[in-house]
Structures are given as structure tokens and as C-alpha cells.
Amino acid sequence: MRQILTILEQNALATPAQIAAQTGIDVETVTRQIAQWEREGVIRRYKTVIDWERLGEEQVWAYIDVKVTPERGVGFDDVAERIYRYPEVRSVYLVSGAQDLRCVVVGKSLREIADFVAQKLATIDRVTATATHFLLKRYKDDGEIFAETEEDHRLMVTP
Amino acid sequence: MTTPNVHSHRHLEQPATRMESGRPPVKPLNTVVEACPPSGIRRFFDIARQMENVISLGVGEPDFVTPWRIREAGIWALEHGYTTYTSNNGLLPLRERICARLQQRYGASYDPATECLITVGVSEGLDLALRVLLNPGDEVIVPEPCYVSYVPMVRFAGGVPVLIPTGSTDGFQIDPERVEAAVTPRTKALLLGSPSNPTGSVQPREVLQALVDLANRHDFYLISDEIYDRLTYLGEHICMASIPGARERTIVLNGFSKAYAMTGWRIGYACAPEPIATLMTRVHQYTMLCAPHIAQMAAIEALDHAEGDVEHMVADYNRRRRLFVNGLNRIGLDCHEPAGAFYAFPSIRRTGLDSETFAERLLMEERVAVVPGNAFGASGEGFVRCSYATALPQLEEALERMGRFVTRIGLACLLAFGVLMSGMARADRMLFAPDGAALPPDSFRLEYAINPERRNASFAWAQYASPDGIEMELHRLDLERDTKNRYAFNLQYPLLQDLGATPALSVGARDLTLTGQERLSLFFAAGKSVPLSDRQARLVKELRWSAGIGTSFFNGAFLGARVRFRGGLTVITELVRYRPNVALAFPLVRNLQARAYSFDGNLFFGLNYALIR
Predict the structure, then answer these.
(1) What does the buried/exposed string (b/e) look like for B486-496 if buried means 16 or more CB atoms within 10 Å of the residue's CB?
(2) pLDDT in tens, B81-132
(3) Residue in A closest to B343 by C-alpha
(4) Where are the domains of chain B?
(5) Do A150 and B45 touch (CB under 8 A)?
(6) ipTM of this predicted complex?
(7) Nearest-CB residue to A159 (from B39, B392, B534)
(8) CATH number belonging to the domain at A52-136, selected among 3.30.300.20, 3.30.70.920, 3.30.365.10, 3.40.50.1000
(9) Fold of B38-60+313-414
(10) B440-477, pLDDT tens digit by residue?
(11) A152 CB within 8 Å of a chain B CB
(12) CA–CA min distance B456, chain A (Å)
């Protein structure tokens, strides 16, 4: 059954018939299992991995570390919530180390992100410091290698 | 494999051609090597290389690149100057790990100091094994279809290959009786690869045990090529040396090429009892010195840390294996389920083409490269080797192209009148309704039935299909009391085979000689097997409908259906002359069926004997 997820993780468009052919599980069972996982939230969503840069789309990605004074009772949760509600914030993590929250923010320009940090992030109560790192080049993202991939060097026919 | 004629022919010609080209006459080269034909695979490579948009299923190596951690270990070794010779039998830490792994996985124990040798791939290991075992003229039994190098390597080592065939009906299992029949006082060894390149078959434990028993009884050695050991999908791999009684006469050959996707590193190993290993090391020491140092360093990393990578790759091959083998069967190329390696070895007999023609036309017409089965020995004829170590979307595309090709061949038969047609759906009509398929060529069928209530009521018929597919039938029907001229001679000619999208089609005539009671009737019939869902397939082996139209005797349209259940029972029904008939058939022994008929409301019991090629 886990094989179904392995296949879907690689290719969200794989049809139940294709999955059945690869796993030997019959089509109805595959369909039923996927539906169940969708209901249970094991499968959260089907996404597409896009190389926007190839399209010539300008996008600025920033990794912003945020230092927060935690508050009794809520810890960092309320601050994290105030941050992740912004749609331009892609991810928010609580991490160990010198900083507390790590946010991934996407904007159209450096200016836009700078404004976001200055006007939205830094002004939140209990946020004591921010450090912004702009993404310069994407080599591998979520398991996907964006740099050129290796070619098939095999001969056409070998014993 | 080669005829002496070819060889002597070349022999005569060569000095002459050399003179013409202005070179001085020279002595002939080694006769054994000259007599050995170039690999059949090579020719295909040359054609395929010059074409574009080819999907190659002809590649005998993984499509994965060596896992990064192994490559990185190789780079590290290179950077740190591990560029020297190693000891002749290879780095001890590597040998220790190999022996530990064989012990832990298969329970085969070897002393890393004296019984394990690192070789330049299994190829070198096999060469060494043959060289230390064989004296000139010694025989080596080789079950085929087999890896392309086995036979030439036996010859190069001065041995005589004795080939024994295996077939697809039992999944290319080796028949120990056949092996025993091939044993002579000169038999020195048996050479086998399991899992097998090209068939993907895995020899079951009983077969291995039987071979070991034979080896002990007749005193010969076993050379076991286990390069595909990790790529076993059904059940566990069994190491030959772990079979009771095997170790002292067994050479186990293995390597890193397939499991770790390291074909280009050229690294393998041989494990054998000390006396054999010592001699193998001696040859290796003088001819090869040692296996590449960097590859040995990388192999250590492979054994230590790449288990996860192997499992990932094996799971991936297994998914493609299921998809591809199912796909082949779906498009009408019967394929036994390969339990190991990464090859499917489907039968192409239904297309009526020989394997070279099939492979060549498939390449030219649909740009899919496969390797003709006869490259792997005479019993590989009628099959092609397809490697599914190819990206999934390409496999799907290849199946589509092959399906198109097979369907087209089916249609081409309509034009190619008189072309030999083989392996068609079994002609199994009941009494009158033809089902579109004639008997396969060179097949024969006899049927006889009686009505137990009326002694005289009986029927009998004999059918024979000529080598070019024309079915001739002589029948004697005595169904009603007062019939005269009960014999009739009928003909049926198949136009199309039941392949891919095309139904089987035939035309025919009954009572051609006008001596029977029926008068001449002409008919046209079609039939097709219905694809079954997995659930249906659990119960039913084949479901086939047929329909047709005919003159005089048939009096218009007729219909039929046939269901073959798992377990052997077949139910045939037909509606002819607007009356229903039913027959039940049950297999008694190999070619004999018991049948019960309800014909025009009367009950008959009979026997059906079929000799179908």
C-alpha cells in the first residue's frame, strides 16, 4: 500500500490504472485507498513542481529568520500565526538555534520583500530581530534537482 | 553455433583478399576465435545507433547512475591517490565484507583470505573459472537461452559447450533429466545464471538441488553466475553454494554491476573452495594483476552504506516489471512472469515472424529496439529480450508502439495470403458454428461422440491444418435415424488472427465435394477473446465470442461463445440454424478431453483428441 504513495509522490498525475499496473494491486483497491487517504489527510494536496525561472518569471525568495520573545502560555504560536496568515509567506518553522522562527517569503521584487519585513514582520510585538537571506540559485528543491540532470550514457544495445 | 564451413570458407578467402589490398600474405589467426561469430547483439546496436527517436529496450544494464555515495567514495579514492595496484586477489577489507555478506544473506561461508577473489566483473571471473576447470575437449553443459558470452567463453577456454534447451511453458526452468541425459564422461562443469539474462527466470530450489545431486553423482563442477541476485522480485535468491552438497564443487560468481548500477566500474568477485580459488588467483595474477583499485574502494562503500539505494532501485524495477509484463500480455505477446533481473522475454510466435525479423521490423517501423532471442541460443528463437531498465514513460510509450506493431502484423496477414500462421487461438468449435479461428498449422484433432440411448446416433470428425493454415475436415454425422451420405469434406481458411484489436476471421466451405447431406455452404466467421478484469480472471481463463454468416446449411447468421474456466472446464454454446447447442469439455489427460453435448435436444457423450502445435 505504501507503494501507492511512493508512486504518487513522484507523479501526482499517475492514474489508479497506472498505479495498479505497477503494483499488482487491483484498480478498485487503489482508487478506494487513495480516496481514504484523501479523506484522512494523509494525502493533503496534489502539487506541481514548477521551474518559474525557466519561464522568465521574476520571483524573489527570501529566508527570514525571526527572533521572538516567547510569552507564557502561548510560546511562539501566536506570533507564528500572525506571520503565516500572510499569503506571501510560504512556510513558517520553529527552529532551534540563535533564531526562533524561520519563514520563507516570496515576492515580486527585493523592494516588496524589504517592505514586508520592515512594515509587517519587524513591527509585530515581541519580534526582537530579523535576518533576511535572499535566494540566489536553486539547485535542489524538495528532492527535485533543478540543475541539469545526468544524461544517459548507456549504449543503445548491450549484452 | 558456427558451422565449420563458415570457418573454412573464410580461411580460403582471406589470404587472397589480403593480397589484393596490397598486404603481404600472413598466417591465419587463431581458429577458435575466428570461428566464433560476432555477437548477434552487436548488429542491432549498429542499426539502432543510427536512428533517431528510438526507445531502446535493448540495454543490458541499469538505467540508474551509480548511487552518489558510491561515486563520491570513488572520487575520494582518486583524490587520495588510491591509484596503485592492490594485492592480486583484491583489498582484504573488501573480501571480508563480501564473505560476511554472503554468509549473512545466503548462509554461504567462504574464507576471505583464501577463497575469495576480486575480479574485473563477472566476465573475468567466468573466464578464470573456465580456464582453471577445463582441459582441452572437456564439456560444459550450458542451459540456454543464456547470456551471450557463455558459449564463446567455454570455447575460448578450450572446452566444448553442450547446450540444453529450456522453454517458456515452465518459465525456463532447467530440466534435470535433460541435464543428466547430456552428461558424458567428459562433462566437467555446468554453467548457469539465475536470475537469468535474457529470460529473467529464477531456478527454484528443487531444480538447484537436483543439479547439485547430479553434479555429485556424475562428478562435475557447478559455475553459478549470480550477478542478478539482488534483483529477485518473487521469493528470495538462493545462492548455489548454500545448497547442501554444493560448496566443494561450486564457483560462485557475482559483482557490483547490477545491484549497485556499477557496470562501468568493472568490478566483481569469485568465491570458490581453496584449491579452485588458488588456481583462479594464479591465472588472474598473470593476466590481470588486480581489479581497478578505485573501483574496489567504491565497492567497499557500496557494501557498507548503499543498502538503501539498492532497495530503492529494486522496488523501482519491480514496479516497472509489473507494468511492462502485464502490458506485453495485454498487447498479445505472451510473456511468462520473470522473477528476477530486469528482462522480459515474451514469445513472438503468434506474429508468425522469426525473432530477428520481428526485432528488425519493430526497430524500423516503430523505433523500438529489442534483442532477438536467438542471440541467446537456438531455444531463444521465437522470443525477444526487452529490458525494462528504462524510464516509466518510455516503457509505456514502447508498449504502445509494440501494440501497434503487433496489430499491424495481424492485419498484414489478410494480405499475406498463405503466410504461415502459428499459435492462433485454439480452434474449438462445437459442431457447426465456426469461430473465426482455424486450427494452428500442423495441428490435428479427432472427435467422436455417441448418443447412449440410440446406438446408431453418433458423430465423428477429423480435422487437420496444413502448414500454411488451411484447415481440412472430414466429418461423419449421424444425428438422425435416416440420414444418408453422411460424410462431408469441409475447408476453412484463416484470414486474420486474434491479435491486439483485430478479431480472428476465417472463410470456409462445408460439404465441398457435394457428397454429404448438407449441400455446399459457404461461410464467413469472426471471433475474439474478451479481455478479462482481474476479478474475472480469477475464475475464467478465457472468454471468447464468435459470430458469422453462412449460406444454405447455416441458413443465415450464427453465434457462439466459449468460456474456459480455471481448473479445466470449458463450456461452449452456439446458436446455429436458430437452435441452441451446448457442450461441456473437461480435460482428462494431456491431449484428451471428455465432452458432453446437448445437440438439437439430444444428449451425446464423446472424446476429443487434439494435437495442437
Answers:
(1) bebbbebbbbb
(2) 999 999 999 999 999 999 999 999 999 999 999 999 999 999 999 999 999 9
(3) A159
(4) 38-60+313-414, 83-305, 444-611
(5) no
(6) 0.74
(7) B39
(8) 3.30.70.920
(9) Aspartate Aminotransferase, domain 1 (3.90.1150)
(10) 778 888 888 887 776 667 778 888 888 777 888 888 77
(11) yes
(12) 53
